[in-house]
Amino acid sequence: MTMREMSANQAANQAYVSDRLLPAEPPPASVRHWSKARIAGIVLMTLWAAIAIALVVFFISAWNPALLTRYGPKLLDGLLVTIELVVLSVAIGAVLAGIVAAGRLSKNRWTRGLAFAFVYFFRGTPLLAQTFLVYYGAGQFREVFEAAGLWWFFRDAFNCAALTFTLNTAAYQAEIYAGAIRGISVGQWEGARALGLSPVVIFIKVVAPQALITALRPLGNEIIFMIKGSAIASVITVYDLLGETRLAFSRSFDFQVYLWAAGLYLVVVEALRRLWDAAERRLTRHLKPAQDSSGQQVVAEQLGA
Amino acid sequence: MEFLDLLSFGGGGWGDDLAAGLAVTVALALTTLPIGLVLGFLLALAKDSDDPGLIRAATIFTTIFRGLPELLTLFIIYYGGQIALQKLFRLLFDTYVEFSSFTAGVIALSLVFASFASEVFLSAFRGIQKGQYEGAYALGLRPTTTMRLVILPQLIRLALPGLSNLWLILLKDTSLVSVIALNDLLRNTNVAVGVTKQPFFFYFVACMIYLVLSIISSFGINGIDRWSRRGEATK
After folding, report:
1. Looking at the partner chain, which of A41, A120, A266 has a beta carbon nearest the beta carbon of B64?
2. Three-state secondary-structure class, residue A291
3. How far is Cα A45 from Cα A265, in angstroms, rounded to an integer?
4. Which CATH class is domain B2-228?
5. Do A141 and A155 contact (CB within 8 A), yes or no?
6. Rounded to whole angstroms, how far apart are CA atoms A42 and A170?
7. Which residues of A touch B199 (CB under 8 A)?
8. pLDDT tens-digit readout, A184-233
9. Domains of chain A
10. Inter-chain contact B72–A37, Cβ cutoff 8 Å?
């Protein structure tokens, strides 16, 4: 039997079978059952909608243009103080964290121990207690600081808060950087050394770029934690966003100022989170296979074309 | 010697006040933990479900309470709860009730804990293979039995590192209730500072007590970790 005869035979067989089969039915329309999950979803979304409506009604009934013109700009000023506090502490903290991370990774046992103690203290105790320790504790040593010409710094609550937050975030960031550097495989160091690069060049050109990518996500979380944590400054009379809000509440006894502050914080945190996600996706785009909008890998398609 | 006197238990010392504060701090954290864990688990179940409405409702919850500063959440629950409760009671019973700062602390901290815990549980759920569900189904186990006997024991193992982190954060966050006048460790330290004018010493002692709490917790967590891995082969 030739090839041609064989395939003709096959086609005839297929036609014989399909003639005797029932015609294919269209697939059944997908039915959405009244599952427990669906009922719970509807109930909970209704609850959120009710809360949203209650908030709108509350804001309309409590509409007070005088309150808004009086305290609105102050809250925005407070937001600026919050941002200033966070940017200052995260930036200076990053520099300090570099030093502490170097200490954590040092070969010297004492350096390592010192860095560990620093990190352990600032990560293991509440930020509020640390802030009290610096702000009120500095007041106790006023003469010493005056003699050293440093009292102008510690007299101001903003400086004390910024100092505490810097030390605190330095400890957290140091752990992030040290962990990221530890995560780089030894082969990277060895390969670079085999190419004859100096340790400094290896660190800057080979290790740091890879480590920073690992550090990106925890670093974003840390910045968000700092934004939220900076509200603690309001307890030592810094007029950041929450500080201005508390002042406005103590004068007006109008609860809605807290809700304004909540809205502002949510907008700032969500915006930063989304920006950071987008930045991370862009910076790590070379690490993932290309994907189309449906999430399917397009690599195979490109190869086939 | 002078500093030891300050910490003595009794009339002149502040040891007993700090201990009483410590008890409140620990009570607050231990009350919050189970509520936060259960709520966080339910939120993770909701986010892991296939109903878009349920997923959205849970996501709104976590977005709000992960984005707000803990201190602001506490103020909103405390003052807002106070106002709401009083309006309600005046309407219903014509009496005045107090919304205690302990309750406000437990509610606020549970909401925050649950939002973060839901993320931990969710990624733990993703770490359990589909085959585990299919195997349990093939054995004829009911969904609740599958969850209890097959999924949960593995889930605990996967979620433990994240949850223990959250517990340490919770221990530290309890200090925030000192701002709404609950006599926890930090608030009693404030009182001691106000009387003795020794801020550096007392805040340092308070910090050390928090450190000791987290060290004790690490021992406990290690124990739970070993227990959760008891079925694994020993190396």
Report:
1. A266
2. strand
3. 23
4. mainly alpha
5. no
6. 45
7. 132-133, 136-137, 139-140
8. 999 999 999 999 999 999 999 999 999 988 898 899 999 999 999 999 99
9. 77-285 (1.10.3720.10)
10. no
